[in-house]
Design goal:
T-fold; 3-stranded antiparallel β-sheet; single chain; 36% helix
């Protein structure tokens, strides 16, 4: 995935711990070769290469499953989470690397290649058709949470009761560390990954993800444009905020942070509550930090005494 992947697990002997860890990383590698849009021969890129060919692409169960989850997320988020933004993702990724700001014509051109109505899924034979040539899918907003969840599921199947998986900030945990009542998770201050908020999360048997623009962004005319793209405009969001979601599973926590980063605060709160998730939005306004949170989030939030 081109990013850190951490596994913490507790079991009775080191031999079993090592064996399970190696199997977990094998599982992760196998899923990355399916979902990555960086690997030319990934299954996802093979699907994208078939765009506009009028030929249905037969998917593996793992690819079809995450595409189904992505479709459901698109519908629940009212289009604010959309994996068809791939052409825009690639444009902004290239421009960030070259330290150039995308021109409006290029963004409009790439927007014409997006839209979930252009992705056709056949649930009978698990095949997918991308109807327009040039379409690209981007699973970056759901795949890390999905992989983290699959890793935890594998550990549970192998009788591990206490473990945490961190896929570069997409965290899924079960049980607790020995002698503790939960896993302690810190949250960064917006736009400062070196400064942590005074409170911490205490979690067990759930998933948590935070999205912001600390590492990937472009500055243009005094504004910072995040790597998180608004599917309706084609531009990166400019709000100075971090969004943290606590959900029952990794994929949901992952995609909800993206949708809630784009939605207005009141709509983000409603969506989180609809998904039975906890939500924290931390934003900077006039050099002051402002908090918006749901009751469920506050249940897990522990301030330092």
């Amino acid at each position: 995935m081109g990013s850190p992947f951490l596994i913490i697990l507790y079991c009775q002997d080191s031999v079993t711990a090592k064996m399970l860890s190696l199997k977990c990383f094998d599982l992760v590698d196998s899923l990355v070769t399916i979902y990555s849009d960086y690997l030319p021969d990934s299954e996802l890129n093979q699907l994208c290469q078939s765009a506009g060919s009028n030929t249905a692409f037969k998917c593996s169960p793992a690819l079809f499953d995450i595409l189904q989850l992505s479709k459901a997320a698109y519908e629940k988020s009212k289009g604010t989470f959309d994996i068809t933004v791939g052409p825009l993702t690639h444009l902004w990724r290239k421009q960030r690397k070259e330290k150039k700001f995308p021109d409006s014509c290029s963004i409009k051109e790439k927007l014409q290649l997006t839209g979930f109505n252009k992705l056709k899924m056949d649930t009978v034979d698990q095949s997918v058709s991308l109807v327009q040539k040039g379409m690209q899918l981007d699973l970056g907003g759901i795949a890390q949470g999905y992989i983290a969840q699959k890793t935890i599921d594998f550990l549970k199947e192998n009788k591990i009761e206490n473990a945490l998986v961190d896929a570069s900030g997409d965290i899924v945990c079960i049980g607790t560390p020995p002698g503790k009542t939960g896993w302690t998770i810190a949250v960064s201050v917006p736009r400062n990954d070196h400064e942590l908020m005074s409170g911490q999360l205490l979690l067990s048997n759930c998933a948590v993800t935070t999205s912001g623009d600390m590492d990937r962004y472009i500055e243009h005319n005094g504004k910072r444009y995040s790597h998180l793209l608004n599917p309706f405009t084609g531009y990166g969001i400019t709000s100075q905020q971090n969004v943290t979601i606590i959900a029952n599973d990794g994929p949901t926590a992952d995609w909800l942070t993206k949708a809630c980063s784009i939605l207005p605060t009141n709509q983000a709160r409603k969506l989180a509550q609809q998904m039975k998730a906890g939500l924290l939005i931390v934003e900077t306004k006039k050099s002051k930090i402002v908090f918006h949170s749901t009751k469920k989030f506050r249940h897990f939030w522990k301030t330092a005494k």
